[in-house]
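Saturday, quiet lab. Running sequence design on the structure tokens for the scaffold JK sent over.
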């Protein structure tokens, strides 16, 4: 994990220097709406510390960060009323998987019937 990166969009959202529709936050994580939603509800849950991707965290960091992201996804799903009907959590890891923003993020997709099994 690294401190805030000046050239990272999601670090700027955490710092409040670029706007986002923030849904939830605590000391370690933040959830906000995706700019280009791929489902009726599309949120992103991120660690507040800069972590480029799943590949940049140590096993001990992984044991801390991933439960925090999934915990916040659960809270978001409750808050938005789709926890019981179902929702999808996706992490795109590295370019071939479609990662375009290199600050680790968990996509939370829900709010209706989702197409396919994985993507949109
Ligand atoms: P990835 O392709 O890396 O898995 O997902 C990156 C996501 O970040 C995309 O769904 C994209 O729409 C979203 N995104 C990119 N830039 C911004 C931004 O400035 N604000 C918000 N809220 N979402 C963004
Ligand atoms: Zn960042």
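Result came back. Writing it out in full:
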């Amino acid at each position: 994990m690294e401190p805030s990166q000046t050239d990272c969009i999601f670090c700027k959202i955490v710092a409040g220097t670029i706007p986002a529709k923030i849904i939830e936050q605590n000391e370690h994580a933040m959830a906000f709406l995706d700019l280009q939603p791929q489902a009726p509800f599309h949120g992103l849950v991120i660690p507040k510390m800069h972590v480029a991707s799943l590949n940049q965290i140590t096993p001990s960091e992984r044991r801390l960060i991933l439960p925090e992201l999934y915990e916040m996804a659960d809270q978001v799903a409750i808050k938005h009323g789709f926890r019981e009907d179902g929702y999808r959590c996706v992490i795109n890891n590295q370019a071939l998987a479609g990662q375009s923003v290199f600050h680790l993020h968990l996509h939370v997709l829900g709010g209706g019937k989702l197409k396919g099994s994985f993507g949109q």
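Notes for JK: The domain at 9-110 is CATH 3.30.428.10 (HIT family, subunit A). Residues 59-79 form the longest helix (21 residues). Ask whether to fix the surface positions before the next round.
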